[in-house]
Amino acid sequence: MRERTPSTQTSLAGSLLLAHPALRDPNFRRTVILMTADGKEGSMGMVLNRPLGRSLGTLGGDFALGPLADTPLYSGGPVQTKQLILAAWQSQPNGFQLHLGIEPEKAASLLPEKDTHVRAYFGYAGWSAGQLKRELSQNTWIIADAPRDLFAQPGDLTLWRKTLGREGAQWRLLADEPDSPDLN
After folding, report:
1. pLDDT tens track of the chain, all 184 residues?
2. Is residue 32 exposed (0-12), middle (13-18) or buried (19+ Cβ within 10 Å)?
3. Are 63 and 70 in contact (CB under 8 A)?
4. What whole-number distance in Å separates Cα of residue 10 and Cα of residue 149?
5. Among residues 91, 92, 125, 143, which one has the fewest Cβ atoms lying within 10 Å of its Cβ?
6. CATH code linked to domain 16-177
């Protein structure tokens, strides 16, 4: 993986932010965030590995019996946690295409397409102007490339461990460290 810092990249959109193993904030502890927007006004992303253990069908209404009933629900972050955001990820030969904030009809139409994964998120992660840059300078986050098969992987704690471990031997050791070293 190539190392990237805020000074070598103009936008983090499309990148992953991996929570540093020492980060204890319960909103972001051991999270993988797909950055969807990053600019002078602020930054936004989706936490990818906080499954809620439910699907859209459990919300009732049109979702109960519709084509999106089995779509998994995730906590996308601590901002606007009642807002439902649908996302579709399509693997492509040279990367991926993300459809974010799409209507249910659009999400349903993408379901049958090859290498397409649809997920639903309550909320998102957001940073005000300059906030993420400060956090990056404090080594709160590790910047990583998003693999083509990102959404095909389990969206739980194993995603953080596996993705962080890809960043090198040092990170692999830290990724496998137990939450409570005294239980080791």
Report:
1. 334 444 455 789 999 999 999 998 999 999 999 999 999 999 999 999 999 999 999 999 989 999 999 999 999 999 999 999 999 999 888 778 899 999 999 999 999 998 899 999 999 999 999 999 999 999 999 999 988 788 888 888 999 999 999 888 778 778 767 666 565 5
2. buried
3. no
4. 25
5. 92
6. 3.40.1740.10
78-97 exposure pattern, b = at least 16 Cβ within 10 A, e = fewer: eeeeeebbbbbbbbeeeebe
What are the residues facing 99 on neighbouring strands? 88
Sign of CA dihedral 24, 82, 120, 90: negative
Task: Show the DSSP H helices in the chain as ranges.
Answer: 104-110, 131-137, 157-165, 169-175
pTM above 0.90, yes or no: no
How far is 65 from 98, CA to CA, in rounded Å? 25
What is the helix (H) or strand (E) element at residue 121, kind and residue range? strand 116-128
For residue 69, how far is the Cα from the chain centroid? 21
Please list, in sequence order, all residues whose beta carbon lies within 8 angstroms of the beta carbon of residue 48, skipping any fewer than 6 positions away: 31, 32, 33, 34, 74, 150, 151, 155, 159
Compute the distance between CA of residue 14 and CA of residue 32 in angstroms, rounded to an integer: 12
